[in-house]
Design goal:
Blueprint: H1 2-56, E1 71-73, E2 86-90, H2 95-100, E3 116-124, E4 130-138, H3 142-154, H4 172-177, E5 203-205, E6 213-217, E7 220-224, H5 247-254, E8 258-259, E9 267-268, E10 271-273
Antiparallel strand pairs: 1-2, 2-3, 3-4, 5-10, 6-7, 6-9, 8-10
Helix pairs in contact: 3-5
């Protein structure tokens, strides 16, 4: 009897141990499963983060948008603010040439494109605010103009508009009447085969409405622009008048330009040439 009881106790113990072992194995498996699952979630999160980071990064082989077809920034020596006062060498493939072709750069233009420069400047308008200006000029005076316009801007000298004459379909009278200061516009001197100073990009007009061109032709007074009659009398006192005391006169002449206001046969108070 005792023998049977002992055997029964052993059987109960074995069953109990087996159950515990099984439960223990199931628990371990569960814990392992949960651990694996957690690792998978963490790994997936990391992969998602890496993917997002990669997508937000700019590839090293991304094209440089600063380069424009047919355009190259020119180097300058004495210009201080080269971010706002700069020149561009341009070719027939450039957007700049597209803007002037058939207008200021006429079909019969014999000035090589490599002799011209596009300039970007800042100027103080009649409203006292800063404005951007554009100029096409001859390369021979490009740096002179950048330096002069930078100094005029720093001094707060007011110039109403500095646009390419092409915005007026290269019509000088329309540009001057709108008081636009401009430079290049290809043309020959009347009744000659000689290129004018504006035609070669070697002259610029400043605030032309207030500083007209005046010439007596056959006893008649010729005034350009026609709407500048109130400013013909140079003894009168009015704003934006260019004379020998004016800063523009002083800077341009210091850079070797001659002033049309000093001419004898005619007067061109807006005009500076080299």
């Amino acid at each position: 009897m005792k023998r049977y009881v002992a055997i029964l106790v052993c059987i109960v113990l074995l069953v109990t141990l087996g159950a515990c072992g099984k439960d223990g194995e199931q628990q371990s498996a569960k814990e392992v499963g949960e651990s694996i699952k957690s690792e998978e979630i963490l790994e997936a999160a990391n992969e998602s983060k890496d993917k997002t980071t990669d997508e937000n990064q700019v590839p090293n082989n991304e094209p440089n948008n600063d380069n424009t077809t047919g355009e190259e920034k020119m180097t300058t020596t004495n210009v201080k603010d080269t971010e706002n006062f700069y020149g561009i060498i341009f070719t027939a493939d450039s957007d700049i040439f597209t803007r002037i072709k058939g207008k200021s750069y006429k079909d019969d233009c014999i000035v090589p494109l490599e002799d011209l420069r596009y300039l970007h400047v800042l100027h103080v308008g009649f409203d006292g605010q800063t404005h951007e200006g554009e100029i096409i000029c001859n390369k021979a005076i490009a740096e002179d103009l950048l330096e002069i316009f930078e100094q005029l801007y720093e001094a707060g000298y007011q110039i109403e508009k500095i646009k390419l004459v092409d915005e007026y379909n290269a019509e000088d009278e329309a540009s001057m009447a709108d008081n636009n200061s401009s430079n290049f516009n290809f043309r020959f001197i009347s009744h000659t085969t000689k290129i004018s100073k504006h035609g070669s990009g070697m002259a610029i007009d400043i605030n032309p409405l207030y500083n007209p061109y005046i010439k007596t032709v056959n006893g008649n007074l010729n005034i350009e622009p026609a709407n500048s009659i109130p400013y013909v009398d140079r003894t009168a006192d009015f704003p934006h008048k260019i004379d020998e005391t004016d800063l523009a006169y002083q800077l341009f002449t210091a850079h070797g330009f001659s002033w049309g206001g000093a001419w004898n046969s005619s007067k061109d108070y807006q005009h500076f040439e080299k």
